[in-house]
Amino acid sequence: MTRLPRLALTGLTVLTLALALPTGGSAAPAERERSGDFGPAVLTGFAALPALTFVPASDPSGALLGTAPVNGVTPPFADQPVQGFSGIARNSDGSYDVLSDNGYGNIANSGDFALRIQRLIPDFGTRRVDAVGGISLTDPSGFVSWPLTRPDRVLTGADFDVESIVKAKDGSYWIGDEFGPYLLHFDRAGRLLAAPVPLPGVTAPESAARLGVTANLGSSKGFEGMAASVDGRHLYPLLEGTVTGDTAGTLRISQFDRTTGAYTAKRWTYRLEATTNAIGDFIAVDKQRFLVIERDNNQGAAAAFKKIYLVDLADRDRDGLVDKTLVADLLNIADPKHLGGSADTFRFPFQTIEDVLILDDRTLAVLNDNNFPFSSGRTPGRPDDNEFITIRLDRSLHADHRVLG
């Protein structure tokens, strides 16, 4: 979420000539053999925030979900659930800021879910995560030009679908939305600082309906991931879905210059290992390398593809796509100390895994989005907790020191 060498574009030129799909067209190529792939990661920490965790003395939520039990949980709820972690940022005091997404999955059912940045502290000794506070996202100055759901201008899941987060050195937050898709800039208290910034040439169905234009991006396929350059100047939002007219299974990485407040002409292409996959997060390793979570849409025993890749924008094989190296298979994590259960192999089998953070040169933090109360990847019929794990990689990332502190 730096200026990247050897990739300058001019005008609307795009450095993304994706390869043709194999015969049949609908399926992307199977995962390619890569000699540089990492070996299995090792589980080094496990903690969980119980699914039934709520913001104390907050507003009621979930009224639009009906009253039928979901995974044994009956809505509506007296308070706001602490759920749906779709982005993470580290704080200097050992806590973490995590982004709750739009609530319950879409505009129609999320109007009473207040968008919020939660603050968490994991305790790997007790295997629990504590929710220790947070801030709600608001627009008191009226930068959003269209009508909001709440008259007090507290933002809800019917207004934006916030999915990615970057915390700047000044304490402000850049957040990527899927309904625009938009970039949103909030101060340290969660107040919007400027009008939402649209992505030129790309429109999701939610904003297309309001603007009276034709959408060219699928619903809920906007900025699922967003990295910051190591010097903080640029943001790199990554779409979750393919733009109409692009090769199926390819995703656009754009570059936004914070000093000018505008997108640059640079763009790169990430190709999914299968057209039915999706990305979950996108973070910087150094000036041109990044980590991305790629996953299938399955959970539990059916989960078959949950991986973290190291991507290089240099496109060294000159195929028009960012280069990919497998860093960790989240369904095949060695667990010799049985931190995550009795088995020697630990699986992270959640439908949506949307948070990755570099803790040191060989250690990553990974969190799931539990889609409360809908996902039940750990135990069928029971809503997923939000799990916070740490894994040690097979070898060093050689990350820029600015992403480690």
Automatic annotation (TrEMBL):
This is Glycerophosphoryl diester phosphodiesterase. The keyword Signal applies. Keywords: Signal. It comes from the Bacteria. Residues 1-27 form the signal peptide. Residues 80-372 form the Phytase-like domain.
